[in-house]
Amino acid sequence: MIPPQDVARQRATSGGYTGIVTFTNVDLAEFDPAEFGDTRPFDALVGRFVLQYLPDPAAALRRLAGFVRPGGIVVMHDMDASNPDVSFPRCQLWNDCYALLGALFRAHGIAPDFGRHLTRVFLDAGLPWPDVESGAMTGGKPGSTAFAWLGSAVQAVEPLLLQAGVALPEGIAIDGSLTATLERAVRESRSMILGNTHYGAWTHLDDGPHRSE
Ligand SMILES: C[S@@+](CC[C@H](N)C(=O)[O-])C[C@H]1O[C@@H](n2cnc3c(N)ncnc32)[C@H](O)[C@@H]1O
User: For position 115, which CATH number holds?
Assistant: First the structure.
């Protein structure tokens, strides 16, 4: 497998960004740009589905935002996978498979509804009150990408679910056929289905020499 940072570099090169964009693979709990010779403050700090996995999200955000210049922007995008009601009329298989994602978060000590807490996390990090927008994948029409999204997600995390002792839905093969099984079940129940709710929060750092604490 090509390392993800090499894929990113290739994409930057093919997009004409050689020498403009660099990629570094680090543990964010310890990241210090000075170690990479970058002492200038950043214009923006952007993270998607990363903050919720860090052991202390507010502390990490506070530290990372410290590398952003006054007036710069901090943008975080995280999810809520805690909704127990994600099909209308109810499609039990869709609900059961979706619930596995939340169960896995819980098993690893990660808040499954983290996205809903972004405002508090920004404030706990000493940042100005953020703007927030949210939205959920919604649909279920035959052929929808929602089926492959949940089918492949459950398939990918099956070993972690087993390791964590999370009970899997009975009588269902967790393999490449799951996407089609989900699609069939939703078609039979004629349901509208929901996926994770995504929350995007952003704020500009104060222009003064110090941010609000
Ligand atoms: C669900 S993936 C999201 C990937 C990508 N940002 C996206 O939106 O598709 C979670 C990512 O968080 C990263 N991650 C988790 N803990 C981390 C840490 N302490 N330092 C750096 N990255 C971390 C993982 O390596 C993984 O790439």
Answer: 3.40.50
